[in-house]
Amino acid sequence: MNALLAVELGWAELPVKVAAALAVVLLPAGTTVYLYLFKMVSFMQSRLGPMEAGPYGSMQLLAEVGKNLQKEDIFPAKADRTIFALAPYVVLASTFLLVVIVPFGPDAGFASLDTGTFDVRQFDGVGVFYALAVSSISVVGILMAGWASASKYSLMGGLRAAGQLIAYELPLVLAVVGVVIQAGTLSLQGIVYSQINGEIFGFGGLGLPYILTQFVGFFIFMIAVQAELTQAPFDMPIAESELVSGYLTEYSGFRFLMFFIGEFATAAVFGFLASVLFLGGWAIPPFVMDIIGIDETSSWFNLIGPIVMVTKMLVLTFIIYWVRFTYPRFREDQLQKFAWKVLIPLSLINIAITGVLKVAF
Amino acid sequence: MISTLVLVAQETGNSWDLPANIAFGIISVIAIGGALRMVTTNNVVHAALYLLVVLASVAAIYILLGAEFTAVTQVLVYIGAILILLLFGVMLTRAKIGGDEELDYEQRWMGLGVSVLLFVVMAYSLWEEFGSDTRLVGYEPQRTAEVADSVFSTYIVPFEAVSVLLLAALIGAVVVARRD
């Protein structure tokens, strides 16, 4: 195991990492779309969902992708062609920038963006701050799509999306601050290690997943993620009964597919991020580690870690889609009120209390 | 990765740090091109998007210098908030598809004069300080904890003053925007 990981790839590391990043973006997106968007929602609505393509409809996804790739790439007559064509790439770029920061094991990750020395567990760097910064780049892509389509529905959808994403960016960032204060580092890897080494009233068998102490932060984070992903009940930007399909109205074929992949891949990446921040990331509970006889620096975690992460991600995205298919849409003013008058004050109080407790203990 | 480049460049120790200088060259060409197109284009939304290119290039230069925290702040504040608000405002008010022929400003020569003057002053002072030394010596990757330590100890008074100033501006904006 160690010998395998010790292979120096040099410049060949780059194509390997690009392929791995593609896999990490596409596979979770495909899995969640099939499991939740096709199957779970069907069962919730007392129907079977796709059954024909492949066993139990499992090849339906490939059929959908094939269909979208064959469609004509339509540009509206009055559209600003360059920006219309570029917009989906900006949205997808934001997803790829987001995925590179996620740690899947002690050494399994694309770029740690950590500085400082690792030997003495002195984690430092920009970590989670970077993730929150690049996630806002997708808004630029959505605004570009809305404007360049030269359609009033698209423009309204784009503007609604921008207003919503700016409003929910704040609670998203502020909810994470509590975790950062508790862990004492911005580095995602450092946050994982401090959860492994944490103790619940002197009992270290479970570590200390921050969902136990930062449940308010977790709650706010998941709501803000729901809004950032424009999933119902926060789907005003693409409200089909009001705006046809919002900023996606004029898109078809390949470019629509890119927006679609971007949406679901970002949901999965936010699931990964939330599991790192609140559920202990790639680690398993320390008492299980003791039974197996490995510790948290073992390179076995580069193998176990991704599996653990995907499991946690599937649980969290399940919650996202469960809420999506359960609650009706908010009204635009309710949405803004909820962000500015409920979530932001609540997260500020959470930060203040966390800070006081951090100093007190 | 780029901070590794900087480190590699330091170890080689010659007067020309090739990787760092090539990266800097590419980024600055993109930034200058974006800036020129931003002031010459006759479409407001295009101008805003060229501004995005300039701001992103500046963030890239920060990363090249090992100032990762500053770079991320640049992305979060300038691209994530200011530019999006700018685009939002432009699209709400005047957002014609295609060009706007009247989009011009008669005092552009004065603007050009000011920017040339600024360029001369900055170029002169940089030349005076660093001479022809093109190495990035002593630029270690900046540690976030060190940024926090200096902001909350050495620079605590200016930091608090700026906070109060921003709060005053915020309240002022609310007062100006209120209808009743």
Assign the structural class of chain B, choosing from mainly alpha, mainly beta, alpha/beta, alpha+beta, or little secondary structure: mainly alpha
Overall geometry of chain B comes to globular
Strand content of chain B: under 5%
The major β-sheet of chain A equals: 2 strands, antiparallel
- One letter per element, helices H and strands E, the order of chain B comes to HHHHHHH
Q: What's the rounded overall pLDDT mean of chain B?
A: 80
How would the blueprint of this fold be written?
The complex is a heterodimer of chains A (361) and B (180).
Chain A: H1 2-5, H2 13-44, H3 60-70, H4 81-99, E1 114-115, E2 124-125, H5 127-135, H6 137-148, H7 152-183, H8 188-196, H9 215-228, H10 240-243, H11 253-278, H12 286-292, H13 301-324, H14 332-360
Antiparallel strand pairs in A: 1-2
Chain B: H1 2-12, H2 18-40, H3 44-64, H4 68-93, H5 108-130, H6 144-152, H7 156-177
Helix pairs in contact in B: 2-3, 3-4
What does this structure look like?
- The complex is a heterodimer of chains A (361) and B (180).
- By secondary structure, chain A is mainly α.
- Chain A has helices spanning 2-5, 13-44, 60-70, 81-99, 127-135, 137-148, 152-183, 188-196, 215-228, 240-243, 253-278, 286-292, 301-324, 332-360; strands at residues 114-115, 124-125.
- Chain A has 14 helices and 2 strands.
- A two-stranded antiparallel sheet of chain A has the order 1-2.
- Chain A starts with a helix and ends with a helix.
- Residues 1-6 and 116-120 of chain A have low confidence and may be disordered.
- Chain B has 180 residues and is mainly alpha-helical.
- Chain B has 2 domains: 2-142, NADH-ubiquinone/plastoquinone oxidoreductase chain 6, subunit NuoJ (Four Helix Bundle (Hemerythrin (Met), subunit A), Up-down Bundle); 143-180.
- Chain B has helices at 2-12, 18-40, 44-64, 68-93, 108-130, 144-152, 156-177.
- In chain B, helix 2 (18-40) packs antiparallel against helix 3 and helix 3 (44-64) packs antiparallel against helix 4 (68-93).
- Chains A and B meet through strand 2, helix 5, helix 6 and helix 7 of A and helix 3 and helix 4 of B.
